[in-house]
Write a structure and sequence with these properties.
Elements: E1 9-14, H1 19-33, E2 39-45, H2 53-63, E3 67-71, H3 78-91, E4 96-99, H4 111-119, E5 124-128, E6 135-137, H5 141-158, E7 170-173, H6 174-180, H7 192-199, E8 205-209, E9 211-213, H8 221-244
Parallel strand pairs: 1-2, 1-4, 2-3, 5-8, 6-9
Antiparallel strand pairs: 4-7, 5-7
Length: about 240
């Protein structure tokens, strides 16, 4: 029997060069979708994708009406892809919006937990690799250290208390998405996840364990540099705001 939350649900999945894992990921996702009523998946692609991913997405869209392809060639970076997905979901009137990664980084089987927590009226539901039950698999030591210590440093400088500041598996109520779309984000890469959590820190949130698998050990110098710049921007702003009070 299908679960009906009486909500219009959106799942946002940016994709680029996912041809190798596309079939296994989408087949697992479809099994989850078959158990839930009123879910639409927005797959966001842009010119960063050079393989057959767009072709595969369009083929899936033509056979399964729950999938919508959003081709956004104007995107400048991955943050633009995420925001384009949120905007698409908001414009189409979705009540809950869940963001997740493809490439088998995030497990589709975890989605029902996000739905159930949003149904308990949490404003934000964040997947965490560092609470009990969460973990990182097939990740390089560099990636693990960046995620774990990046969270600790971010919490220290920003005055937050999240267990995982860099996870991108998360869900929001519609009102939060409306607020999110008004932010003038500073991030150009994956620090966007941390920036978002900081900007939404006053909302009622909960962290839920997830299993994260990353086939890529690489984190670019440009991404790390942007993360440091944005982190210290908010740290400085926080100190200045305190002084003004």
């Amino acid at each position: 029997m299908k679960q009906n939350y009486s909500k219009n649900i959106a799942i946002i999945i940016p994709m680029a060069n996912e041809a190798l894992t596309f079939e296994i990921f989408t087949s697992r996702l479809i099994k989850v979708l078959d158990l839930i009523v009123n879910v639409t998946v927005y797959i966001v692609l842009d010119k960063a994708s050079k393989d057959r991913t767009l072709e595969l997405c369009k083929s899936l869209e033509s056979t399964d009406l729950r999938f919508k392809v959003v081709f956004s060639p104007e995107n400048r970076n991955v943050v633009d892809a995420y925001i384009r997905g949120y905007r698409e979901a908001y414009i189409r009137g979705h009540d809950w919006v869940i963001e997740m990664d493809a490439g088998l980084s995030h497990e589709p089987e975890s989605l029902p937990v996000f739905f159930s927590l949003l149904d308990k009226e949490y404003d934000c539901v964040y997947g965490s690799r560092f609470v009990e039950g969460g973990r990182m698999m097939s990740c390089s030591l560099k990636r693990k250290l960046l995620s774990k210590y990046g969270t600790r440093i971010s919490n220290l400088l920003l005055g937050t208390n999240y267990s995982d500041m860099t996870s991108g598996f998360q869900g929001f109520q519609r009102g939060v998405v409306e607020k999110l779309l008004k932010f003038e984000l500073k991030s150009e890469a994956h620090f966007y996840q941390t920036e978002l959590k900081y900007l939404l820190r006053e909302y009622k949130y909960i962290e839920t364990p997830i299993i994260y698998s990353s086939p890529s050990p690489n984190v670019s110098f440009k991404s790390i540099s942007n993360s440091i710049q944005v982190l210290f921007y908010y740290f400085t702003k926080r100190i200045v705001d305190k002084i003004k009070k």
